[in-house]
Amino acid sequence: MISHKYLLDQISISNNNSGLGAAAAVLRGRLIRTGIYSPFIDKQPQAALGRRRAAALPSSNLPPSKDYHAKPDALELSSLRQAMESNNKPDGPIGSIEEPGVKAEGQLIHAMRREVAELLGRQQTSFPGAQPVSFARQHLDELSRQDYYICEKSDGIRYILYLTEDENQGEAHYLIDRKNDYWFITNKNLHFPRENDVSAFHTATLIDGELVWDNLPNGEKQARFLVFDCLVMDGNKLMDRSLDKRLAYFRERLYTPYKKLFKDFPDELQYQPFIVEMKPFQLGYGIDMMFKQILPNLKHGNDGLIFTCRNTAYKHGTDPHILKWKPPEENTIDLRLKLTFPTVEPDEWERKEGITEPFVDYDSVPKAELFVYKGDGPEKYERFDDLYITEEEWETLKGLNDPLNDRIVECNQDDQRRWRLLRFRDDKKEANHTSTVTSVLESIKDRVSVKDLSDAAGHIRDNWKARAAREAPRPPR
Asked: Is 476 among the domain residues?
């Protein structure tokens, strides 16, 4: 396995040899000249993969046959170098939102999952993010009963950004994906200053958001991390606060100082791995504004809306107060794909070539079955339905030269109620749970259109304002 320190030494060597440390020197020089030199820039990346201590792990969890500090073999080191050189520059923008850094492995990942669980006060070490439910017709009444905020549902990759420090008290950052993998951001320029000290940085902080590609006018792409919630800030748990309080705390303590830093040093944005922004929220009745003004002007892909209750606490796992609306034609399910290829008898030409036994025909369109996730247990999956694939589509899939069997695929129903492949979801470890599939099927059956939402906006607004009037403090008599 890859030693923690050895891995970081290789990152350091790679950085020094490539000359990519010049960007860090630029910002360091500017900070020195302005008298606000930040020690985070001067840190060598030794052990920058975070404050991971093998000693902190229970001895029973350490593999007895492996040396935790063993050097990586040639294949592991080659894979590491290839990932860093092809995807992400140590001192520049990331090259991939699917693999935004170096993935923690082995005992390191277990230690980190436990550290985040302790930070949240949880026993479970699973992915801590909240998950929405699919929007159904009964949720129109829910939007009238309680205050909800709306934001666009970006077509990106969901991550929780973890701000921590390494064993040398240097700044370190990770992106945690839905597979519960931890991606170390190798770019040393990423910095989140505190309110009154630009050289200080935040630790023990968990920020919920989505990494997207923005399409720029010059044709280039820019990675952007869009924040829509905050779980913990500098060790202070925010989950029990309402959404508006959580967002206000994040804006004041982290986002405003971050924006000011790059207002003072705008040229340094080009050296950031990604740009951080708060996702714009509208009041629950601002539906027409979303469809007419916001969605048409987005720089990145979008596949719906998210309605989040203003008053409820942050909930790990499925949250019935986070509603995911998609256009009826875009309601999708993530399922596991299983392929079964036909066994055929050799034809006359093949018999002349000496092929006399039946063989598996990998060129023909296979039987494609979809499976839904039941949960951890002896039988994790059960059959859901068939996937319809045309011969033309199969030729395209074969041309990818990628493994197809046992992958997670996103599917929707066509007008003949056949399930069709939209894309692969390699960012997901498991297919949708059976409860999620049931929810999506209800949404498909009981579809809510753009017009339905627009027609409900007036009633939602009236009820919102009535609640606000009741809750407003009365003047003293």
From this structure: no
Q: Is residue 471 part of a domain?
A: no
Q: Which of 164, 207, 181, 463 is nearest to 314 (CA)?
A: 207
The radius of gyration computed from the CA coordinates of the chain, to the nearest angstrom, equals 25
For residue range 455-464, list pLDDT tens digits in order: 999 999 999 9
Distance CA 274, CA 187 (A): 10
Same domain for 12 and 67, yes or no, is yes
Contact 209, 129 (CB under 8 A): no
Confidence of residue 90 (pLDDT cuts 50, 70, 90): low
Q: Is 153 a catalytic residue?
A: yes
Residue at 110 is within a domain? yes
The DSSP code for 427 is T
Contacts 24+ apart (CB under 8 A), 34-39: 36/198, 36/199, 37/199, 38/191, 38/193, 38/198, 38/199, 38/201, 39/170, 39/199
Count up the domains in the chain and report the number.
2
The Cα-based distances of 61 to 87, 117, 228 in angstroms read: 33, 17, 35
- The residue annotated as part of the active site, out of 43, 89, 103, 153, is 153
pLDDT tens, position by position, 48-71 = 333 322 222 233 332 222 232 333
**325: three-class secondary structure by DSSP:** strand
Domain that holds residue 158: 4-326
Sign of CA dihedral 440, 444, 445, 447: positive
